[in-house]
Write a structure and sequence with these properties.
Blueprint (H helix, E strand, L loop, with lengths): L51 H7 L2 H9 L5 H9 L6 H13 L3 H8 L13 H18 L15 H12 L4 H25 L6
Helix pairs in contact: 2-3, 3-4, 4-8, 5-8, 6-7
Length: 206
Amino acid sequence: MTRLDNVVAHVARPALPSSTHRRGSTLPPHRLPHLPGRVAIPEQARTPGPSALEQFNHAPADTTREALLTCLRSLRWAHRLTDHRPYPDLDALLAASDEAAYDLTAADLAEALAGETLPTLPDDIYGVAHTALNAAHAAYEARFGHVFVISLDGTHPAELLDRALEGIRSRLANDPEEERVVVAEELRRLAGQRLITHLTGPKGRP
């Protein structure tokens, strides 16, 4: 016999199996090959459930588009990311998101802006600050005809108001075409950040 049909672990004094222990198939004692020493039997690895990206890749198209529209309210962008599935990893999905965002037309940007709101500030920001932000935004909206959008990712909570006010006031000096370019870039960043949150949770990427 040149090849062993089965290799099994030999334990000198095996414990009696409990009621929950599942015994595998064994050979009769006279057919057990001799194995010197003890051989460890590796535990069977648990099969992990599907990752968030795997669920994203294989979910029904309508479900995926609805989820994407919570990240950026552009049908063209959502359809494109849905149609190009599956993505091998999160970086590939984010690269596709950026590419699709760069290709949005003026009409697509207007559609996306219609689904945006002012940046959310912490609840403990005092009332005067909200008044200042609302006044600055009113001036911005009167000039450009749409909501002000800005990516505040990575900004310390204590600096959110100052960043938002500074962004509005500095961008009020832009002409409409300059501001359209800035808005497109901010929407692209927001879409990427929301995708990360959607797939990895509030803590973001590992």
